[in-house]
Amino acid sequence: MTSYTGGSPVYVPENLAPNAASPGWNNKGDNAWQLTAATLVGMQSVPGLVILYGSMVKKKWAVNSAFMALYAFAAVLVCWVLWAHSMAFEDPLCPLVGKPRPVLSERVLLGKLKLGWMPMADYVYFQFAFAAITVILLAGSLLGRMNFYAWMMFVPLWLTFSYTVGAFSIWGGGFLHQKIIDYAGGFVIHLSSGVAGFTAAYWVGPRHSHDRQNFPPNNIIHVLGGAGFLWMGWTGFNGGSSFAASGIASLAVLNTHLCTSTSLIVWVSLDMIFYKKSSVIGAVQGMITGLVCITPGAGVVDSWAAALMGVVSGAVPWYTMMVLHRRSAFFQKVDDTLAVFHTHAVAGALGGILSGLFAKPDLLSMLYTSGNHTGLLYGIIDGKASQGLRQMSYQLAGAAFITVWNVVATSFICLLIARIVNLRMVEEDLEVGDSAAHGEEAYALWGDGEKMPRPLRLRMPPRIPFICRRLL
């Protein structure tokens, strides 16, 4: 038989022909990269955000915070393959969402993906990892007080009625499809998680008053470890969004790390200028805002623009978090535990707007079939200012839609759950933390679950010989 590689005929003996598990249309390089990228995205959540959340909160909330992330990861996958993937990416039910149906059959999962030369299972897996991290990012606003039973119901409901709508509307064929520049989820993932988290935090209510005033991380070294998983995992987050082992993927990866590094440096510099100290937690926040900001434009902007986006993502969210938040009664009213609104909603909106400004037509034409996309800057340079302004209006409209939909849908879900169980843990349990919520503690003696006893300190008489002191 005859097969073709790179346009040149290659004759393969019949007994060496590809089997049904690897049909001729399957590009093994693209397939391998997509599976790797999806796994990197998954590792951002498990173990990345599990470690980050479990370390960034007060010691008594370490187990609960990490477990919220772990549970969400598992629950999203079950819901994803049963109905949510089709709602986000398959046949339209209406301009906002697709028809719910399972994607579990061999015929579907081993069929060719329309977007590239790989099996459909790659796409389902990759998009699941995106959906899972969105819900887990949202959880960062609710740590330290949400009733875990309420969280167990919130995850599938929010995935179904909020995330799938945003994903379908912008990526899956909905009314904003092929209009919005959102390469890897600045709007669909980060703006939605930041807005939904802030909204849910309003309905759940604040932490215990003492926790809100005094909430130190229990292990900053582990915070850096979790942040490291998040940063390196973003290689798959943005690199995999081109659905090919292509030049766009390479550019997206480089731009991701360049923007992130710049943002971190800007954030730390502002901390040193205004607070005279370089905060490790501040550096992590600057890292996150850089990752978020570059996401919607990673594969469609030049690297100089990525660096400039890093400057903006390090400065603007720093101002909204460190200055505006402290002066605003509106922000003070809502207890957003890990400041997800600033690191994801603000940075995600910035990224979407800056992508509309800096996106390059040559790069856009490789990803969007409409062929009418251009960033405002290049529209002005190329004499197509009206086209650039139209693109910017789409970006603003997309940000507005995602914001409004998440406020409404998240509020509805919280009010619905509140009629079944309490959204917030009772006050007595809030004082205890993990032991009350799960009957477990993060730091205990191995095997018996007991706390480490206080060490007995012996006071030495001053005349005991030195050797005796050593023995005691």
UniProtKB/TrEMBL annotation:
<dbReference type="InterPro" id="IPR001905">
    <property type="entry name" value="Ammonium_transpt"/>
</dbReference>
<dbReference type="InterPro" id="IPR018047">
    <property type="entry name" value="Ammonium_transpt_CS"/>
</dbReference>
<dbReference type="InterPro" id="IPR024041">
    <property type="entry name" value="NH4_transpt_AmtB-like_dom"/>
</dbReference>
<feature type="transmembrane region" description="Helical">
    <location>
        <begin position="61"/>
        <end position="83"/>
    </location>
</feature>
<feature type="domain" description="Ammonium transporter AmtB-like">
    <location>
        <begin position="32"/>
        <end position="443"/>
    </location>
</feature>
<dbReference type="Pfam" id="PF00909">
    <property type="entry name" value="Ammonium_transp"/>
</dbReference>
<keyword id="KW-0812">Transmembrane</keyword>
<dbReference type="InterPro" id="IPR029020">
    <property type="entry name" value="Ammonium/urea_transptr"/>
</dbReference>
<feature type="transmembrane region" description="Helical">
    <location>
        <begin position="32"/>
        <end position="54"/>
    </location>
</feature>
<comment type="similarity">
    <text>Belongs to the ammonia transporter channel (TC 1.A.11.2) family.</text>
</comment>
<feature type="transmembrane region" description="Helical">
    <location>
        <begin position="337"/>
        <end position="359"/>
    </location>
</feature>
<feature type="transmembrane region" description="Helical">
    <location>
        <begin position="123"/>
        <end position="143"/>
    </location>
</feature>
<feature type="transmembrane region" description="Helical">
    <location>
        <begin position="304"/>
        <end position="325"/>
    </location>
</feature>
<feature type="transmembrane region" description="Helical">
    <location>
        <begin position="183"/>
        <end position="205"/>
    </location>
</feature>
<dbReference type="GO" id="GO:0008519">
    <property type="term" value="F:ammonium channel activity"/>
</dbReference>
<feature type="transmembrane region" description="Helical">
    <location>
        <begin position="396"/>
        <end position="418"/>
    </location>
</feature>
<dbReference type="GO" id="GO:0005886">
    <property type="term" value="C:plasma membrane"/>
</dbReference>
<keyword id="KW-0813">Transport</keyword>
<keyword id="KW-1133">Transmembrane helix</keyword>
<feature type="transmembrane region" description="Helical">
    <location>
        <begin position="150"/>
        <end position="171"/>
    </location>
</feature>
<feature type="transmembrane region" description="Helical">
    <location>
        <begin position="217"/>
        <end position="237"/>
    </location>
</feature>
<protein>
    <recommendedName>
        <fullName>Ammonium transporter</fullName>
    </recommendedName>
</protein>
<keyword id="KW-0924">Ammonia transport</keyword>
<feature type="transmembrane region" description="Helical">
    <location>
        <begin position="243"/>
        <end position="268"/>
    </location>
</feature>
<keyword id="KW-0472">Membrane</keyword>
<dbReference type="InterPro" id="IPR002229">
    <property type="entry name" value="RhesusRHD"/>
</dbReference>
<feature type="transmembrane region" description="Helical">
    <location>
        <begin position="280"/>
        <end position="298"/>
    </location>
</feature>
